[in-house]
Amino acid sequence: MSSLIDSEVNGLFVTDKKICVFCGSDLLGRSDKKYCDDTCRNNHHYALKRENLSVIKYINNILMHNREMLNQLYKNKNTIINKDQLVECDFNFELFTNIYRTKKNEEYKVVYDYAYKFINDNELVIIRYRENNRQVNVNV
């Protein structure tokens, strides 16, 4: 953001007066300078990223809540639960970290280190998911 204003700065006549993108102070020095100092540059970039960070934090909080619910309900290798147990805990079925497909083309929704799949309309199975252990053994 710059303005073409004729002015005199320290006894020098300046025709292209620029101002700091963040705070609006007059800029002296290089012609391509945008910020008066590192603080303004850092604050400007932080302000640009702040909105994205709040969205990421919101989604991550939901994912952490979902993971905690799966952790609490997981009992053994193939824990079968009723869908209502997760619904009562405000589990968000729309957010997950990955989709895992087995060799039998079964689809699991992964939430960090747990995964689940529906075995019918009302029941689902919870398993532990490990990235380096790609095989899932489910006997349901």
Overall description:
30% of the residues lie in helices and 26% in strands. It has 140 residues and is an alpha+beta fold. The protein has a domain of 74 residues. Strands 6-10-9-8-7 form a five-stranded antiparallel beta sheet. A hairpin with a 2-residue loop joins strand 8 and strand 9. The radius of gyration is 27 Å and the shape is rod-shaped. The N terminus is likely disordered.
Alpha carbon gyration radius: 27 Å
Total helical elements: 2
Approximately how much helix is present in the residues? 25-40%
Structural class: alpha+beta
Distance between the termini: 64 Å
Number of DSSP E strands: 10
Task: Describe, in short, the structure shown.
This protein is of the alpha+beta class and 140 residues long. The protein has a domain at 67-140. It has helices spanning 38-73, 83-88, and strands at residues 2-3, 7-9, 12-14, 17-19, 26-27, 79-82, 98-101, 107-111, 114-118, 123-128.
